Amino acid sequence: YDPWVYLGYLARHTRRIALAAGSIVLSLRHPLHVAKAAASVDQLSGGRLVLGIASGDRPVEFPVFGLDAETRGERFRDSFEVLRQVLETRFPEIESPFGSLHDVDLLPKPVLGTLPLLVTGSSRQPMEWIAAQSDGWITYPRPLAAQTDVIAMWKRLTAEAAPGRFKPFVQSLYIDLTDDP
Question: What string of DSSP letters covers 57-112?
Answer without folding.
Answer: S-GGGTGGGT--GGGHHHHHHHHHHHHHHHHHSSS--EEETTEEE-S---SSPPTT
